[in-house]
């Protein structure tokens, strides 16, 4: 699907709205789609279906861990996949769908998570005296009743936090049990890299071995992701009617300035474009890009948006240990 072929934004309001909602593809979506493909049955055309693959001997499904540092784009990627995927559709109480998306609140226990699932699947009579194991049993049953066969748990590391009154092993086991639901439920969990370590703390390793792993990293210079970041930036500029001089290497400078962290790099790229649109500038300049950067980073003398050829500026910045 090409997102930029939709109606071109014309007014400033339309342009800003268009820009804000733009999802920039760096290749992580393809990798995620590839991982998901392995979790489900395929049809005779080789197309992924919504039916999770089950081990015929155990009836169990598999899981996927999406791991990455904060701001590396896990939530944005998962939500975008749910919006765009022809097979996985988000379940809401008032809207049928086959995929339940849950965001775990910071202090949630495993019991709280089960209660959230019950509420989100329309089970109104949640009894707070219910034991965690019973709440989970009802939750797994609900999946089958309402037609959910994929569960996505974002910020999953929160339920695996240790501390008083928290049972990490039981929490790990509840994840395993989701993949042992009667009707077959594929599980996608997302969180910071410590999520993997927490699951590995189970001595038997029985939960960990049911998961594949997908790591979202920063965008490194010269990588395919970096090239695609540049293409997204240029394409967005073009749709917004802002001219960018390719020799300025603005996208490379943005990635350098934000150390390739996805969230921050996208935010700076969009802010630079927003600045040009709102001030009705038809041509993007390094000078104005630098001004945008300095508004949130006032303490740098020389910045990556310093005038001059990028290769030379970069060399100089590296020599002074810029941003290290
Ligand atoms: N591909 C993308 N295109 C456009 N914006 C993106 C993209 N990826 C991430 N973002 C934006 O970057 C910011 C950080 O991304 P996101 O919240 O998904 O990261 P995260 O890995 O879930 O972080 P956390 O662990 O803190 O929840 C968000 O504002 C999001 O909208
Ligand atoms: Mg997130």
Automatic annotation (TrEMBL):
Gene3D superfamilies (UniProt xref): P-loop containing nucleotide triphosphate hydrolases
Lineage, top ranks: Bacteria, Pseudomonadati, Pseudomonadota, Alphaproteobacteria, Rhodobacterales
Domain of life: Bacteria
Protein name (record): TniB family NTP-binding protein
